[in-house]
Design brief:
The protein is α/β, with parallel strands linked by helices. The protein folds into two domains: about 5-45 and about 305-400, Alpha-Beta Complex (Aspartate Aminotransferase, domain 1), CATH 3.90.1150.10; about 55-305, Aspartate Aminotransferase, domain 2. Helix content is about 35%, strand content about 15%. It binds pyridoxal-5'-phosphate. Pyridoxal-5'-phosphate binds near residues 42, 107, 188, 218 and 249.
Length: about 400
């Protein structure tokens, strides 16, 4: 009789967003006349920029001719894209990253979930709390868990680093040394960041204790403040301790197109073993390359027109972030984030439970947000709104909240 991977049975019953979808569907069925505004899921709403559409059309036409048709892409990515990324995202900004340290993929979710595979089962992980749930869930699937405490909703072998208003959303170094440290900066869900010197502190700490930082910079394009680094490789010593994961989803609206990349510097080693080689082996074995058409679309993000058009999209969402943040603050809410990220993180009024606040906003304002508790135990009593809607809906949602 076959056996299943029992680690999967340890996962919480349902993914946060399916619970939200179920609740919203039930409300809609009971109140078909109500117009619901969704500021919950972190999906973009603006169409792809013209420079990207042009690149897609051109690449599709190439596929129609025998001379320019492309089959399997190189496992690790086409040189035209790896070279462009190496220059635009790193070398031009003073970071030492070469094209063969960049691994093109179908997005940051896959990479941030898969990266743990190249580490030993014994590794102890540390995660910011609250954070994007994929880091903990994929380590649970791999068995790096210990026992689960339902009261605190924590695993005994996972080190949770609380990030709350009390510590300005800056995690403290854990009392026990972790082997892998997940940092998501700018953070989903809190929308907060680390300054250059704070991140340098984490790089120094990781080098000192021999840990690897897995740095998820999916929201890098939303950084507006000078003191917030766009890449961990802006910090001294990051090449020996950090893997960086990036996405085209939020800077270019590729959530449905699918493209991302991971940087593994060649200086990152466990003894004589290079993590760059291990990840190349893993990626080449389990992934057959992102599509040519999509990689050409990714390249177009870095063209002069592409850059201008994408900046306008990010600015559009950040204007929503400003509207939400200022609107909530004017109503007396304690609000965080929204300056270097498209997420606004608020304290629920009068210590209300996150899910109760979700139900309250849904029924009284017909606005959907995301309960903070879904992102980790320290998210309890918080709530996330996203800036990815239209201006019109964002303003309407804020008006409804104001009228509550
Ligand atoms: N990393 C973080 C922190 C995210 O919030 C998300 C999506 O919401 C992702 C990664 C997923 O990115 P992608 O669409 O490239 O898979």
């Amino acid at each position: 009789m076959f056996k299943v991977n029992e680690n999967y049975l340890k996962l919480p019953g349902s993914y946060l967003f399916s619970t939200i979808a179920r609740k919203v569907a039930a409300y809609k069925e009971a109140h078909p006349d109500k117009e619901i505004i969704r500021l919950g899921i972190g999906d973009v709403t603006q169409p792809l920029a013209p420079a990207i559409i042009d690149a897609l059309h051109k690449a599709v036409d190439e596929m129609a001719l025998a001379e320019s048709f492309r089959g399997y892409a190189p496992d690790l990515g086409y040189d035209f894209l790896r070279n462009t990324i190496a220059w635009e995202d790193y070398e031009a900004r003073g970071c030492q990253i070469a094209a063969d340290e960049i691994f093109v993929s179908d997005g940051a979710k896959s990479d941030s979930g898969n990266i743990q595979e190249i580490f030993s089962e014994d590794c102890r992980i540390a995660v910011c709390d609250p954070v994007y749930p994929v880091y903990v869930d994929t380590n649970v699937m791999a068995g790096r868990t210990g026992t689960y405490d339902p009261a605190s909703e924590t695993w005994s072998r996972v080190i949770y680093m609380p990030c709350t208003a009390e510590n300005d959303f800056v995690p403290a170094f854990p009392s026990e040394n972790p082997d892998l440290i997940y940092l998501c900066v700018p953070n989903n869900p809190t929308g907060t960041t680390l300054t250059r010197s704070q991140l340098q502190g984490w790089v120094d700490y990781a080098n000192r204790i021999g840990a690897v930082i897995i740095y998820d910079a999916a929201y890098e394009a939303y950084i507006t403040e000078d003191d917030v680094p766009h890449s961990i490789y802006e910090c001294q010593g990051a090449r020996t301790c950090a893997i960086e994961i990036r996405s085209f989803s939020k800077n270019a609206g590729f959530t449905g197109v699918r493209l991302g990349f991971t940087v593994v510097p060649k200086d990152l080693k466990a003894g004589e073993v290079s993590l760059n080689s291990l990840w190349a082996r893993r990626h080449g074995t389990k992934f057959n390359g992102a599509p040519y058409i999509i990689q050409r679309a990714g390249e177009a993000c870095y063209s002069p027109e592409g850059k201008v058009q994408l900046k306008a999209q990010v600015d559009y969402y950040m204007e929503n972030a400003r509207i939400i943040k200022e609107g909530l603050a004017a109503c007396g809410y304690e609000v965080f984030g929204g300056v270097n990220a498209p997420y606004i993180w608020l304290k629920t009024p009068e210590g209300m439970d996150s899910w109760d606040f979700f139900d309250y906003l849904l029924s009284e304002a017909n606005v959907v947000g995301t309960p903070g508790s879904g992102f980790g135990p320290s998210g309890r009593g918080y709530f996330r709104l996203t800036a990815f809607g239209s201006h019109e809906n964002t303003k309407k949602a804020m008006e409804r909240i104001r009228n509550l």
